[in-house]
Amino acid sequence: MRTLLRRSAITLLRPLFGGRAWLRWTHLVLGGALLMPYWLLGTVVVGPLIDADSMFSDSLALQFGAYAVALPLAAVSALFPLVRPLSVAAARALCGVPEGALADGPARSWAARVRTTGWFTLHVGLGGIISGMSLALPPFALALMVLPLSPAMRESWRTMPGALDHGWGLALAPLGGIVSLLALAGCAAAASALLARLAPVLLGPTPSDRLAAAERRAADLAVRNRLARELHDSVGHALSAVTLQAGAARRILDSDAPKDMEFVREALTAIEETTRRTVGELDSVLGLLRRDDEEQPVTGGASGPTLDALDVLLAHCGVRVTLSVDGDIGRVPEPVSREAYRIVQEGLSNALRHGGAAPVTLHAALGTETLEMTMENPLAGTAPAPVVRPGGGRGLRGVAERATLLGGHAEAGRHGPLWRLSVALPLTSEGGGAR
Fold first, then answer.
1. Could you give the CA distance from residue 339 to residue 36 in angstroms, rounded to a whole number?
2. Per-residue pLDDT tens for 254-297?
3. pLDDT digits over 404-415, tens only?
4. Does residue 431 sit within a domain?
5. What CATH number does residue 245 fall under?
6. What range defines the domain where residue 272 resides?
7. For residues 124 and 117, what is the distance between their CA atoms, to the nearest angstrom?
8. Are 403 and 343 in contact (CB under 8 A)?
9. Is 185 exposed, middle or buried (CB count within 10 Å of its CB: 0-12, 13-18, 19+)?
10. Residue 362 carries which DSSP code?
């Protein structure tokens, strides 16, 4: 029975004196401290109106008048955008509000500012009351509890009319002190619970905050998709080229009388250069992802080779390519040039996987507003399937996505015995995806 009573007492007193209660009481005292500058300004305004001796007068009219002036001043100052992140940080640390329930960043919209104003005014208003009670009630309660034991204190209290003039009042004084402390703890707990309940409402994300967060996630997803295409085109092409070159070299070495050792040497050199170039590109893309893992935003910054590196790509792609160019491709804008390079790379990968060592023709024509590229290769069998590798990426779909993001278009299909990939890219990006 005694154990049950002890547990019941602990359960009842924990909301008033537990660890969370002390943190929330600290949050209220912080609100009281924030109210003080506004309250002092309020005393300057109200003092002359009621003929107060000084701003520290014990006049109740001055105290409550200054309090009434301080709250509107606090509300106006809370309209500044940076008030919300500061309030959110305090609420998360001291009120025990879940992190996901509160908004991040300054209050940009007027709806968010008005909500923040309501929260800040409520925080400093309740904080000022609880702070005042915390300063006044503990000394009063302590005096009541020691009153029966202190003749000097009893003598000073005899001038105060009331129940203490009687014996029963003196005997109940310690109980009154305890009740005063419990009342203070109860008021603080009630005010803290109200703030904790209203925090998600007043400091939570507004519809504009949710829209901005959705736009950030969409932008991040778009960048990640671009990085995925970069990896697919770069690594996929390199693996296809290396596989073909290694297979050709192995067949030469496995022959009974290997004679063309120069071809083997060239194949191994091509493998070395292709893998070295691909590792550099892979490091560049993974560097962007590592920066994101360090809680830095993923950016859509330009990375990767452009058409200036096309000769190197064609020289080590593992298949013979006949290139014809109309115009100076060096003047192609960098975003378009970078995406065009990747499209050529993916086209060569498809040619390697489905045409074997058959030669490829590539024609690039630079007009005044458009870059047109056509790639053709004989088909060893059927046309390429949309999914070119088990578990791999969709290369032709990636080509179409790159062209669409630039405001252009791409077509791929069988033309007689040939497989043809045709791409038209405007020199000024309309889609904005290559930035």
1. 60
2. 775 556 777 777 777 777 777 777 776 677 666 666 655 444 44
3. 878 888 888 888
4. no
5. 3.30.565.10
6. 211-426
7. 11
8. yes
9. middle
10. E
- Residue of 365, 375, 374, 376 whose CA lies nearest to 427: 365
How confident is the model over 301-324, as a mean pLDDT? Answer: 78
Distances (CA, A) of 355 to 307, 313, 351: 24, 18, 5
Listed range (103-107, 128-132, 164-168) with the worst mean pLDDT: 164-168
Question: Is residue 402 included in any domain, yes or no?
Answer: yes
pLDDT value of position 77: 92
Q: Which residue has the higher pLDDT, 420 or 164?
A: 420
In this structure, are residues 112 and 19 in contact, taking their beta carbons and an 8 Å threshold?
no
Cα–Cα dist 201/203, whole Å: 6
Tell me how far apart the alpha carbons of residues 35 and 67 are, in angstroms, rounded to a whole number: 9
Dihedral (CA of 221, 353, 314, 429) sign = negative
Are 223 and 277 in the same domain?
A: yes
In 3-state terms the chain splits into helix, strand, coil percentages (rounded to 5) of: 70, 10, 25
Residue type, 88: V
| DSSP-assigned states of every residue in 63-82 | HHHHHHHHHHHHHHHTTSTT
Domain-embedded: residue 432:
no
Q: At what angle do helices 60-77 and 110-146 cross, to 10 degrees?
A: 150
65-69 average pLDDT score: 89
- Please tell me whether residues 140 and 284 are part of one structural domain: no
Instruction: Give the dihedral sign, CA 134/140/141/146.
Output: positive
